Amino acid sequence: MLDTLDKWVVHVNNHFIERLPSLDSPIRTIGGVEAKKPEFIDGVSARSARKAMPSDRMVRALAETFGTLSDPTRVRIISALAGEELCVFDLARLLGLSGSAVSHQLRLLRGQRLVKYRKEGKIAFYSLDDDHIRNLMEECIKHVTVE
Q1: Separation in Å, CA 25 to CA 4, 21, 28, 139, 143
Q2: Same domain, 131 and 79
Q3: pLDDT digits (tens, 9 = 90+) for 98-131
Q4: CATH number for the domain including 104?
Q5: Residues 93 and 134 reside in one and the same domain
Q6: Is 131 found in the same domain as 100?
Q7: Do 80 and 129 share a structural domain?
Q8: How would you label 128-144 residue by residue, b for 16+ Cβ within 10 Å and e otherwise?
């Protein structure tokens, strides 16, 4: 029974699969009698987990968002913008970076809809795109500070 689970784990760790395995057990013959080979130890829980999982498209979008947030400089920018709307110049001074370095990071954050900007003359003021980003950061901070 566990050989199917072992193959599933190998495939997941090596990224060989692109789709989830079927929850329906394949039929095999044992001594001329058809028998189903279980795919999971707890099929009910597996079905419930499958229903709760986001779509492949959503998983890719989430992975891209978390990938964008995986850079320490971008985390610092998000943290600074969680409290205040700031221009590129002020962000650069605050973080000890060049304006072009901050602009590059803001472009990536804007591409993932994590920050937005408004123009006042020639100056662009950046803020978090919405409260979800602030909440996400707060939850992540709670997570990493819990022992």
Answers
A1: 10, 10, 9, 39, 38
A2: yes
A3: 999 999 999 999 999 999 999 999 999 999 999 9
A4: 1.10.10.10
A5: yes
A6: yes
A7: yes
A8: bbeeebbebbeeeeeee
Amino acid residing at 38: P
pTM over 0.90: no
* Integer Cα distance of 53 and 58 in angstroms: 9
Domain that holds residue 128: 62-145
Per residue in 5-47, pLDDT (tens digit) is: 444 443 344 444 344 555 555 555 556 666 666 678 888 999 9
Residue 21: CB atoms within 10 A of its CB come to 17
What is the spatial distance between Cα 47 and Cα 24, in angstroms, rounded to a whole number?
Answer: 10
Is 115 found in the same domain as 84? yes
DSSP letter string, 39-100: S-SSHHHHHHHHHHSPPHHHHHHHHHHHHHTTSHHHHHHHHHHHH--EEHHHHHHHHT--HH
